[in-house]
Amino acid sequence: MSASWAAAVQTLRLAPVEQRAPVLFVHGLGDDASAFDALRQRLEQEGWPHLHALSLAPSDGSESLSVLARQVAHEAQALRARTGARRVDVVAFSMGALVTRYWVQLLGGRLMVRRFISISGPHGGSALAFLARGKGITQMRPGSRLLRALQQDTHPWGNTEVHSFWSPWDLMIVPASSSRLPGACERVFPVLFHPWMLTDGRVHDAVVEVLGSPAVAR
Q: Which Pfam families does the entry link to (predicted)?
């Protein structure tokens, strides 16, 4: 992290703790809730009071993304009930970002989500998905029926604020530009490997900045 970036983060005015939404983390293919341990620790240090990471089951791509999206919906509703919050923020990685997008666009999640940060999500599909099988894997292939349905939605986000973080050097999302998300605020990070997006300090700083920004009436 550059000195100028670090200084900017240190002087950033975050919203008061009581104004910060609960955060739900959604992991990627072959992972579980522990994938977000480093980022959760960072947010805890910054004072976030309500953080929850779920473990999708199964996470190996064998199940349809719609089934996984319903798990996200259930966890988000439970988090809202526990905290009394009207809306939550979601930080999702890789396959989890596409699962979250499905929930937000097609299952009413836009009514429950204040901010959605997609980190290296295969929103345009990945050519590597042709090398494996499974319902979810097939849906992550470029041009799949699911991806076409999501892309045809002309008003996908409602009042949800959407951000896309991605790396042009991502070797899991092929092409890397598939992580770009229509209508999202975009940030590009020169991170060498797909999983490093969850541990890179610059990405963590950006997550803190986005989630900690004062809410704008929408």
A: Palm_thioest
